[in-house]
Amino acid sequence: MPRAPSTEIPSAGKPHAFAGVFAMLAPQMAALDEFLQAQLESFEPEIRAMVNYCIDTSGKRIRPALVFLSGWKDPRSVSADLVRAAAVVELVHLATLVHDDIMDSADVRRNRRTATREFGPNAAVLLGDALFAHALHLASHFPTTEVCAAVSESTRRVCAGETVQTLRRRSTDLTPADYHRIIDLKTAELFRVSCFLGARLTGSAAGYVEASDRFGRHLGIAYQIYDDLADFFGREDKIGKTLGTDLASGKLTLPLFALMDRLPPFERAALAEEIGGQRPAQPALRLKQMLELGVFDQVECAVRHEVSAARAALAEWPGLPPTQHLLALCDVLLAQVASLRPVG
Amino acid sequence: MPRAPSTEIPSAGKPHAFAGVFAMLAPQMAALDEFLQAQLESFEPEIRAMVNYCIDTSGKRIRPALVFLSGWKDPRSVSADLVRAAAVVELVHLATLVHDDIMDSADVRRNRRTATREFGPNAAVLLGDALFAHALHLASHFPTTEVCAAVSESTRRVCAGETVQTLRRRSTDLTPADYHRIIDLKTAELFRVSCFLGARLTGSAAGYVEASDRFGRHLGIAYQIYDDLADFFGREDKIGKTLGTDLASGKLTLPLFALMDRLPPFERAALAEEIGGQRPAQPALRLKQMLELGVFDQVECAVRHEVSAARAALAEWPGLPPTQHLLALCDVLLAQVASLRPVG
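The joint structure predicted for all components is written out below.
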């Protein structure tokens, strides 16, 4: 069964990698939970239980955290605008997860049944739509159309990324450039808009808004590459979902590109057939080859490259309250990647 | 195969019932087509062809027509705001059709293959999302957040209506009140917001904006009841889609409620089992019984009731330019219902 193209930090119920940084966001996250719970009443009674199932607090809430951190003032400040914006990006994200799980026929996410498994794919299509619509509705309650415009554009780009990925599944003529474009759209876009909104809604200087936007985009790309690396090098008990499924579902990710480059022609053709679905995937063999051929180092290097770009975006804003916290996310992500490194 | 819960006027390539009224909208509809075509460039290359497939001009464009007619000034006036609003409601409508067809596994709509059949259900989920997102993006380009707020709220309500209908399919404890609530949400809501936007965006008096809104809602309910009647009494060559499918898919509509009421207990139990899926549907028998038991008259009466309410909404605005054209839609709808009446 193919894995959903998740962008979640490993959890399995344990504190996740970003927990240290996110701990400081307890008041903001509590306000977000309260806000999201209050939204339930806006939904028709039949849909309320389904929405509630989705907005439970077991998610990592990375995108809301980016909103809060990029608009950071001080620990006591809980801005209503940021809470609303955080809810908007989280609802858009939840909607994409609900729809992704339909396409992947995924049974489990975050250690519980997916909405498509719980309510059926038909209800899940509409549930995702309702979450999208409500996100945009919340966005329309800001004084100007700027948030609506930013979020609807991001939503379209996220959908475009997922579409291209779906259309190109099992396609072996995908290039690394295609891969970067897909993850830029499907993951980095929502990271980017989260950082943009956090900075923008707190009345920050235009230069910092642009820097925060750029930071979010590079962090998002780095994060997705990490996630794709974890699909091979993670441990299922840590990740809380089945691993090795990108290969099984014919999704060409950076670790597979790196392996392709390193394999002799005969083996490369065999791997291409696994991706294309002409022969059964051999994830154990491919992981063994990745370990032997130094794939990990190359992919880690790609993460570092994006993290450096994210850090560089903030270089001119060293003293701003958000900066140290956003930079801490970079450190945590790199530590998380390092923890995947095979021993010996 | 269940029929999609379409809200389209019968076409089969021939001029549809509203054609007489819509003929006067040629300049506005041409501007809408041009506007929609220009939107294609906003989509990623891989999605563009799919979007183009959906926004072709074979649809009836009833909702755009409601925008144009409720904001009517004179034949030469083509308001950019109305064109944009018409595009917004049409894209929302197209998105719901794309998602409906996935749920119904529908193969044909408007005499051509559905998007889900043409591109696969996975791509169709995302295509619908992209259409929704783009609609909201266009809505965010008005000076204030009002259009965004109205359209996102409508979208959520349309999704809610579809969800309730999906969840209650094959349920025989649905009441006529449930049925009215479902069609109010899934069909009347978008008719309503179309009429609201047309009136509002042309700077009409608040009283007329409210009247137009109310008109649209009642016309939408009447229209859906007509559509449900046509599912039994229409002719396939006229309708351009398979008939009798509401019964086959276990969807309780007004003609079936009316038949239920008139059948003797034993037959009623059998019909309930057909709706519940415990025994095969017998559409020919049920249509015969509907003809014998006067179901047509009762359903036609329900349409008339809603049309009267729609007309009454405009009673205080007899001299306004839109009024005569909106009222003409009522006449056309009633004539369309009458044309379904069985001969003899």
